[in-house]
Design goal:
The chain is mainly α and 380 residues long. Helices cover 71% and strands 0% of the residues.
Length: 380
């Protein structure tokens, strides 16, 4: 076994371990939406099993483990449907699982049915003959093509379904960011998979290199670690749903916050935001701001929704956008890049800044800057 293959196998094992930890953690958590939690848990487990199966096919010195290399193949067809169902649960008003969703299992069941002869022959004299058939380039070509088509279909369903939903409903920015991350991540995985597929089909030499079969599994390892990182950085945000983001007012029906204290908190909030500018902190959270105000997170959330009529993200971004607008037209900051201004006012990425800016002004930062400069020039 070559050193490069050993390294890829080690990365694969790390991916399996992380997927297992994430799946168990999501099953045990009681906060957030249970449907989303369960879907993401099963999705993580599916990724882990897919990586494990791909790694096992490389352990040819152990016939028992090598034969297990086909166990993951039907499971791989569950990845794209689970991704779609999970993302759909993030924007849905009332995430639930319906019987019709079982139709998503059809590709996995068809793959399993095709592999029945291979599974049933384990330990028999006919097994070696079947190994040649089920580990052939023909089977790889058919299965890989089907997986690529399936992922492409579900990515289209995700982007079109979310766009359709957004046209008639408001969507929390945190939910939008998670969906965008997952869509872009798995779109890149699809491109990598497509390139791998084309090279495997066209080049006999490429197909025979063991390391190439682990390219996609290692990419999945990176994705599972990225998902876990998001969960650690912002606990609970991976499974927040649009319904939870929009229906927070229901939590305050039994709140002990009086009207007088609420008004005092609102004045304190505006004073801190305007004078201390905490919104420039790109890692500002509801808990951090509440601590700065010396009030509970629950009360801060309540006054934002009841008194200010905004959720935390929109409220903070409104201050960031107003400061960004000033910086875009001030002579002293005219030489700043869009990204530079975005980071100065508290945004962690240019895309998040552009989306928030357009939401609040109906223009992109560049359009706003150009329009302002044109107006200034016309009044000279």
């Amino acid at each position: 076994m070559t050193l490069s293959l050993q390294i890829l196998l080690i990365l694969g094992v790390l991916g399996v371990a992380q997927a297992a930890l994430l799946a168990v953690a999501l099953l045990r958590t009681k906060r957030g939406n249970l449907v989303s939690n369960r879907l993401l848990s099963v999705f993580a487990a599916t990724i882990g099993l897919s990586i494990a199966g791909a790694c096992l096919t490389k352990l040819r010195y152990s016939p028992a483990l090598y034969n297990l290399g086909k166990i993951h193949q039907p499971i791989s067809f569950l990845g794209a449907p689970l991704l779609f169902l999970y993302v759909k649960s993030l924007w849905s008003e009332k995430p639930s699982f319906r019987k019709t969703e079982l139709l998503h299992l059809v590709p996995a069941l068809l793959c399993a049915a095709y592999l029945v002869p291979f599974y049933s022959s384990l330990g028999s004299v006919n097994h070696d003959v079947l190994v040649g058939k089920y580990y052939s380039k023909t089977w790889f070509t058919v299965r890989a093509f089907a997986l690529l088509v399936q992922l492409c279909i579900y990515l289209v369903l995700i982007i079109t379904g979310f766009a359709k939903y957004k046209r008639g409903n408001s969507v929390n920015e945190n939910v939008t960011a998670k969906i965008r991350f997952l869509f872009l991540t798995f779109s890149m995985l699809w491109v990598i998979g497509l390139v791998h597929y084309v090279l495997s089909v066209l080049s006999r030499t490429y197909f025979q290199i063991s390391q190439t079969d682990l390219i996609v599994p290692v990419c999945l390892t990176g994705i599972i670690y990225a998902i876990a990182y998001l969960g650690l950085r912002e606990p609970g945000t991976l499974t927040v749903t649009n319904l939870e983001a929009r229906s927070v007012n229901r939590k305050y029906t039994k709140s002990a916050l009086t009207a007088e204290r609420a008004e005092d908190y609102v004045q304190r909030l505006f004073s801190v935001m305007e004078n201390e500018r905490p919104y420039t902190d790109g890692k500002l959270t509801l808990a951090k701001l509440a601590k700065r105000l010396s009030i509970s997170s629950h009360h801060l959330s309540q006054i934002l929704n009841d008194k200010v009529q905004q959720n935390f993200f929109d409220f903070v971004n409104s201050y960031r956008i107003e400061e960004a607008k000033r910086k875009l037209i001030e002579p002293a900051t005219q030489h700043y890049s869009i990204l530079g201004i975005a980071e100065e006012v508290g945004f962690n990425s240019k895309s998040a800044f552009n989306n928030a800016f357009k939401k609040h002004t109906n223009m992109t930062p560049t359009e706003f800057k150009n329009a302002t400069n044109n107006n200034s020039a016309s009044h000279r």
